Structure prediction request, 547 residues.
Amino acid sequence: MDKNKGVLYVRVSTTKDEQKSSLEIQEQALEVICKSKNIEIIGTYSDKASGTRIRKRKGFISMLYDAGIDFSKRNDKSTDDFIINNNRSPKFNYIICKDIFRFGRNSSEAMQVIKELKNNGIVVYFVNAGFDTSDKDYKMRLELLFTIAENESHNTSQRIKFSKRHLAQQGKYTPSRLPYGYKRVLTTNGNKEIVIDKEQAEVVRFIYDRYSIDGGHIISNILNEKGIPTQLGKKWSNDKIHRIISNEAYYGSPIVQKWTKDDVTDIHFKKAKEVNRIQLFNVIPAIVTKEQFDELQKIKKERTNEKSLLGKKVGKDDIFYEKILCKQCGSRFVKHSGEKKKVMYMCYTRRKYTKTECDCKGIAYNVLVSYINHCEIKQTDYFAEQIVETLVERIDIVKLKIGSVEEEINKKINNLENEISVITRKFITASPEMEIELNKIMEENKVNLAKLIKQKEDMGNKEFDDLLLKIKNKKQLIKQLYGKKAYSFEEKMKMVDCIYVGSTDIEIVLNRIAYQEEFDTFNKLVEGTEFVVPCQTNIHMPYFFER
Prediction:
C-alpha cells in the first residue's frame, strides 16, 4: 500500500437536521487539513449515533474492518473485542478525525482501538488536538484529554440531573423517549404536546386485555406473527411485554428518575433508589385504567410466587455463569429450571425469541458436568516455568537499578537539606535586599526537594516485591495442579475459559494457569524502558465432544 492514504471519520450524536449539516462541515474541514498534509483521501466513514459505545456505530465498525481489525461484540457488560486480522491488510494508513470525542467518548474502549490500529500500522490524527498517534507522548496526551473530558462530562451530568429533577418536581413530564403508545405533536401555539398514538395504543390495550389469559410469551408470539414491530422496529419478547404492563405511564401517572447513570458517557444505566423516584399524577392521557394496571400486577405476582420456579433467573453464584456460548448465534447460555426442577442451560436468543431465531438445543447441567469430567489433563507446563524465569531475572535487574538510582536521589536530598539549613542561618544577618534573594533560592530548593521526594516514592521497590510474591504463589499453584495425576471437577472448573455449545457438538476450552497477568504488570511498571519483555500468552487446551 502506498504511503499517506487516509480516510475521514465524522460523527454526530443525533439525526436532527442541524446535526446532519454538522457532518458535512466536519468532512469539508478535514479535507482541507488532508491536502495540507499531503494525505490522499480514499473514503469517508460516518455515524449518526452516540459515541459511548462502538457496537452501535456501523460506520466506525466498517472503518475498522477496512483497517484490518475484527470487531467482536460481547454478551456481557465488559468492553468488546478488537483484534488484528493478519489475513486482511489495511486499505489505508491514516485516519483523520476532528477530535477525540468524535472518535469515541468511552476512554477505555477508544484507547484499546487506537492501540490495535497503531499495532497494525495505522496512524490516527486528531485535528483539534493537533497531534497524532505517531507522536511518542500520544498516550499521555490522550489520557490527559480524556481525563479533562470526563471531568466536564461529570459536571454536565450533574447539571442535567438537577434540571430533570427540577422539572419533575414542577410536575413536568419531559422524557427523552416516550413510552410505546404515545407521540409528540405540535400545537397551534408552537408547543409540543404528548398525545396517544392510536395504532400503538390498540396494541397496548390488546396486551392488557390478553395478559391475564395468555401471558407474555404467547402475546409476543401473536404480535410477531402479525408483523407488528416494537417501538424500535424489533420483535416482541416476554420481557418487552412485562415492561408494558409494569409501566405506570399507561394509566397517565408515570414514575420518573427510575434509572440513573453516574456520568453521561457511562454505557449502562442502574436502578435509582426508591427515595429518588418521583411519580407525576395525571400528566399524560391514560390508555388503560388504574384498576386494570393494578389487576395485572396481582396476576404477575401470582405467576412468580415461591412455588413457581420455572425459568426463574439465577444469580452469579452459578458455576457456569457466562461461561457457555452458543456456537450458532453467539449468545450466552442462561440457566433455566425445567420440569421436575431439572437444571438446564438454554441459548438466550432461543429462549427469548423461540427456535425460529436459533435452533441450538439446550444442555443439561449434569451433561455439562460429565463432559468436564471427561477432559483428561496430562500435560505439564514446562514452557511457562522456563519463560517466567526470564521475568524474574528482569525484575532483579530492575530492582538493582532502582536501588542505585535511589542512592543517588538520597544524596541529592541530603545536599538540598544541608543547603536549606545554610540559607536559614544566613537570614539572621541578611539585609532586606539579601532576604529577597535568599527567599527566591529557598523556594527553588524547596520545589526541587519536593520533586526528588516524589520521584523516590514513585520508583519504590514495593511493587516489584509484590510481583515476585505473586509469581511465587502462582508457581506453587501450577506445581500443585500440573503435578497431579488426577483432577477433581472443582479443579477443572477453575481452568474453564469457555464452553461452546452447538446442535451436534460441544467444545470445552480450558485455560492453563500461566503468567500473563504478571507479565502485564511488569511491562506496565517499566513502560517506555529497555526492560519491557514480550507478553506470554495463556495456553488454551480445547476438548471436543459429540452430543
